[in-house]
Amino acid sequence: MSVVVGMSGGVDSAVSALLLKELGEHVIGVTLHFSQHSACCDISSTRRAKAQCEHLGIVWHNVDVKDIFDCQVVQPFWQAMAEGATPNPCVFCNEYVKWQGLLNVADELHADLIASGHYAGIVHGGDGDQICRGTDQAKDQSYFLYRLSAEQRRRALFPLAGRIKSEVEGLASRWFSPGLLASRESQDLCFVEGSVGEEIRRRLPCMPGDVILTDGTVIGKHQGLVSYTIGQRSGLGISAASRLYVVEKRYTTNQLVVGQRSACMRDAFEAIDLKWQHLPTGKSLHFSADVVTRYRSKPVKGSIDRVSEDRVSVHLADSLFAVTPEQAVVFYDNRYILGGGTIV
Q1: How many C-beta neighbours within 10 Å does residue 210 have?
Q2: DSSP string, 244-281
Q3: What is the pLDDT of residues 265-280, one digit of tens each?
Q4: Residues identified as active-site
Q5: Burial of 236 per CB tally in 10 Å (0-12, 13-18, 19+)
Q6: Do residues 245 and 258 make contact, with C-beta atoms less than 8 angstroms apart?
Q7: For residue 89, what pLDDT is reported?
Q8: pTM exceeds 0.90, yes or no
Q9: Domains delineated in the chain
């Protein structure tokens, strides 16, 4: 069986390719080039990915996906930021760029499956294919994969599903020389060079305004609402007797509302732009699930009601901190993804 493996030049993708080759699969390494500014596909990462493939004795391809990355990830990100949201570009990158890019290459090369170094798993069954949590709970990345299409999931492999990070690092050190391994992991906003805050201020208009408490008391000045996110505590530029957090960004009055941590807690919200991987029979209008609103956050039991075809109302058993508009919410049935959407 032939498998296209996304090769970033990092430890996880290198070991994924190694494990597949050890299983006797015909492995094809593919590095997707997102942007000249991307930290996950810069010159050193690309050279390292090529060298890893040469070391393993597998074919390597370097594929340019800059245009689709800019169109589907970078531009929507900055547009959402300009509108006051805090988007999650990684979920859209996986759907439109990484997995679709690998799938396109697989089709061109007549390969059977596609694989990555994500710490996640998948269950292939008659009722569909579901992404699920990997063995390493501390590194689990299934949250970022809820938007994968049926075809992407049908042909997906996750060689690290049953591995933990320390085990993967041990395999890497035994099979690859230090020069073939990345010294750091990729960052969240791979398309931003340097400080994210500085890039925001460079790209977007930042109009100073009042920082107010939840009761309306003015306690300081902010440097532009786009520079802040819900739940933020550090970098507010104000002094207070107790810790204060960003509770709300009021664009109509250009005010940054701050308050106690309790003011950032929410037990209900809505989500749109829904993607479903599996909904058991009878659960199309109302169901219970484990709700995750941030990467690596602890799941909270929730009740989900379908408001319309592309909107759900979520009620939580316990309040969550800093549920943020434009971030992803993912619904799990124990380890398995049911679906997810965008918080409003």
Answers
A1: 17
A2: -EEEEEETTTTEEEEE-GGGGEEEEEEEEEEEES---T
A3: 999 999 999 999 987 6
A4: 93, 190
A5: buried
A6: yes
A7: 94
A8: yes
A9: 2-180 (3.40.50.620), 206-259 (2.30.30.280), 266-343 (2.40.30.10)
